[in-house]
Amino acid sequence: QVQLVESGGGVVQPGRSLRLSCAASGFTFSSYAMHWVRQAPGKGLEWVAVIADDGRDKKVADSVKGRFTISRDNSKNTLYLQMNSLRAEDTTLYYCARDVSAPANYYFDYWGQGTLVTVSS
Amino acid sequence: EIVLTQSPAILSLSPGERATLSCRASQSVSRYLVWYQQKPGQAPRLLIYDASNRATGIPARFSGSGSGTDFTLTISSLEPEDFAVYYCQQRSNWPKITFGQGTRLEIK
């Protein structure tokens, strides 16, 4: 069955960096676009970034542009989110989500359980 | 940015009743509207895509309708497991996709 398992979250000081990972299994990872979506505790959902199945095309939300980078390693079935210059408003739960296909259709049929990032001094 | 406004914020109903949830877009999204269900401590679950298409494994009591700026998610007869938060999402303006703020469906 499809599984997405995020890791790498934690407590980090403002201005520092963190890299999230999402290990995928149960499907052909290299055949799907992948996304990061975040959700502040008790709040709504915010799309963060997308990467094409082959990793060549990437897009990020304006709120994280210039600070966050999405990448993937299809040989390791793993998705990444490199987060630099972290701010308090980046404190939230980060989900890895599978697009329904490739090229991206921008909606999601499988989600991980999320990894919590807390930015605090 | 396309803003999605969901109403009501909270809907209190009893099992067996019919639920009608609304999602209104600030500009037309054609039929590129998606619905998710989220239970406490869980990730969202895809219910409906492109306004009216049920995702794989979703019971027939869930249905979606609408186009342009006004959309509805209907649950024909509520089961105990349907009480959750429901989000709409537009994918018309990709990559600037946006979500509604959610409707909490609670047991009356």
Features:
heterodimer; A: 121 residues; mainly beta; seven-stranded mixed beta sheet; four-stranded antiparallel beta sheet; B: mainly beta; 11 strands
Mean pLDDT of chain B: 96
Low-confidence regions of chain A: none
Separation, N- and C-terminal Cα atoms of chain B: 35 Å
Distance between the termini of chain A: 40 Å
Question: How many helical elements of chain A?
Answer: 0
Largest interface: A-B, 20 and 21 residues
Rg of chain A, rounded, reads 13 Å
Oligomer: heterodimer
Strand content of chain A: over 45%
Number of strands of chain A: 11
Q: State the major sheet of chain B.
A: 7 strands, mixed
The helix/strand order of chain A is EEEEEEEEEEE
Task: Profile the largest sheet of chain A.
Answer: 7 strands, mixed
Helix content of chain B: under 10%
> What characteristic shape of chain B results from the CA principal axes?
globular
Residues in β-strands, percent of chain B: over 45%
Please state the average pLDDT score of chain A. Answer: 96
Concise account of the structure shown:
The complex is a heterodimer of chains A (121) and B (108). By secondary structure, chain A is mainly β. Chain A contains no helices and 11 strands.
How would you characterize the overall build of this protein?
The complex is a heterodimer of chains A (121) and B (108). Chain A is mainly beta. Chain A has strands spanning 3-7, 10-12, 18-25, 34-39, 45-51, 58-60, 68-73, 78-83, 92-99, 108-111, 115-119. In chain A, the strands form 2 sheets. In chain A, strands 2, 4, 5, 6, 9, 10 and 11 form a 7-stranded mixed sheet that branches. In chain A, strands 1-3-8-7 form a 4-stranded antiparallel sheet, with no helix packed on it. In chain A, strand 7 and strand 8 (78-83) form a beta hairpin. The mean pLDDT of chain A is 96. Chain B has no helices and 11 strands. Helices cover 0% and strands 49% of the residues of chain B. Chain B has 108 residues and is mostly beta strands. Chain B is globular. Classes of the chains: A mainly beta (121), B mainly beta (108). Chain A binds chain B through residues 44-47, 50, 59, 61-62, 95, 100, 104-109, 111-114, and chain B through 34, 42-46, 49, 55-56, 87, 89, 91, 94-102.
